[in-house]
Predict the structure.
Amino acid sequence: MALLARDPRRQPETEARIAALDLPRGGFTRAARAEALARLRGFGLPSRRDEYWRFTDPADLAAPAPAAGAPFDPREAHVFAGTDRLEIVFVDGVFDPARSGPLDLAGVEITRLAEADRADIHWAQGIYGTLEAAGQAAVPRPLAALNTGAATDGILMRVTGRAARPVCLVHERRAAASDAVLHHCIRVEPGAEVTLLETGTAAARLNAVMEVDVAAGGRFHHVRVQGRDHGRRAATHIFARVGAGALFKSFTLAMNGVLTRNEAVIELAGAGAVAHVAGAALGDGATGAFHHDDTVFVTHDAVGCESRQVFKKVLRHGAVGVFQGKILVRPGAQKTDGYQISQALLLDEDSQFLAKPELEIHADDVKCSHGSTTGALDATALFYLRSRGVPRDAAVTLLVLSFLADAIGEIEDEALRQAIVERLEAWLARHRA
Amino acid sequence: MLTIRDLHVKLEDEDKEILKGVDLTVEAGRVHAIMGPNGSGKSTLSHVLAGREGYAVTQGSAELEGADLLAMEPEERAAAGLFLAFQYPVEIPGVGNMTFLRTALNAQRKARGEPEVSAGDFLKLVREKARTLKIDAEMLKRPINVGFSGGEKKRNEILQMAVLEPRMCILDETDSGLDVDAMRLVADGVNALRDAGRGFLVITHYQRLLDHIRPDVVHIMADGRIVRTGGPELALEVERNGYAGILAEVA
Ligand SMILES: Nc1ncnc2c1ncn2[C@@H]1O[C@H](COP(=O)(O)OP(=O)(O)OP(=O)(O)O)[C@@H](O)[C@H]1O
Ligand SMILES: [Mg+2]
């Protein structure tokens, strides 16, 4: 396909970037890594000229070295500190064994990529780079290919039963110019269930890929909080394949961050599969530049599947929010139920929200809807609350939480939802008008 | 209780004067009614007293028990004891009725230096008040006014009033959109709150509400002014003859 043609203009940059990488040789991943780098060379690094990067400048994500900056240390316990969990800690992308729990959990087998990769065979062989490559079919995602080629660590998790506790990845950033490339593979076996939590900034620059294969009847829950580091830059990709009757749910909270691009590429592959992706992003340009991009591509490839995309952004003082979301319904994917909403709440007139919702439908018996709105706080609602005695700041917080409610509501677990709401309230308290 | 003197109000963004010198005093323990043609400025008066943005006071004063209302934020006015039942109560998706009302009650108590009400006591209080207003407990679990019928919204305003126990209650057309039984419930709710320390300003177009909430004083507002003040018989006159006679008299 034309997209895969080499773009000669980008070759020098792409080669320079690859040359700057410390490429692992790979054991069971060796072939996948080589193929990924070939894909990357074919695509070239992303640039502003690409339609897919029209709203977000990838220069800092593509550059050979990350921009340096002082790490931001809010000195607070992480958001999941109150949850019973198996914790796995990475500092600037490097595993910290001393602070990680033993990788041993009923219902789950976990190893790290850096360790397992020494072996020539591994269960993750059918996943590593495979879902990523499949996710490249419609649009090139060169940063994901780069990740598959260059990932230094990550977790390989096979869920065989009902996980006894959530698995929690803690991503700390300590160095000024750390550049983490992490790649996770998750396989949820038929009927198995797990919750994966992630929290933290990870590095000055993070490139993360998570490939998730949920087999028939499996259930995967993902709740991610990206860290309040103002200087962080991140490109993350989730590639998910959801089998018959299986459930995939992912929620991301992002507060602050100079540049964040979160992509989710989801294939509903078996009849009756369900996938929900949601996100809440809050940015205040007064405390540092903020650019947050959610790019989602959901493919319905089986009968009777349900997908929901719910993305909300709260922006002020020049913060920029981007949403690109697509629902593709393949021929034969009848009885599809697809839904997509992206909304921005602009707390002042300086901020902006750029949205590109797309539907592409090749089946006739489907129900798909999408919507995108940009609005300010409702002055009448604010007055109503205040007229009852609720102070202005508390009233604004209530209205912002009300705006975010649909997205937060995608977190199934009540306690986790509450933990997220507390972080939101704290952020809003720190970022008063 | 409430003393309004020569109040002139214009729109903030336009040179349009809406209130053109309102004088009105509501004494503690008394119920005053305001009637008047559409667009005469009744809601504007209630909004300005409650502190809504978008209006500019160009002259005059409004005091609640001697305190300058116009210098206060809306939430401060509420804590000082002012309550406005809205002509058009606002729907706020995503904020639960109970959360809202408890936040409001405790914020007011905090502002007055009173202890907060515990979750348990609050629940008991609201349940009891809701029962007398025949408001379904299920309804209270929903977001503020979302999916409420017109009449349910008005009853919810009265419930908020009953829970917050303000000293000065302004009701802006709380009777419009109510069926006969609901009107009775609302009136009973208001009457239950009537006492020597509390004042009421009831804005209405219809005598029927005033059959249930018997006013002490009735005012007619026209073109931004109070043009006539009298006893309950004034409302009956309006009901019988409309405003034409009264307006012709004052013109
Ligand atoms: N925010 C505003 N913007 C423009 N015009 C306004 C605004 N508020 C009030 N007005 C105008 O001021 C006048 C008085 O309006 P107000 O709502 O106070 O009347 P009212 O007496 O309550 O009428 P009704 O009986 O119909 O409720 C009307 O002409 C109205 O259009
Ligand atoms: Mg009115």
Summary: Residues 11-377 of chain A form one domain. The CA atoms of residues 215 and 243 of chain A lie 5 Å apart. The interface with chain B takes residues 378-381, 383-392, 394-395, 398-399, 401-406 of chain A (CB under 8 Å).
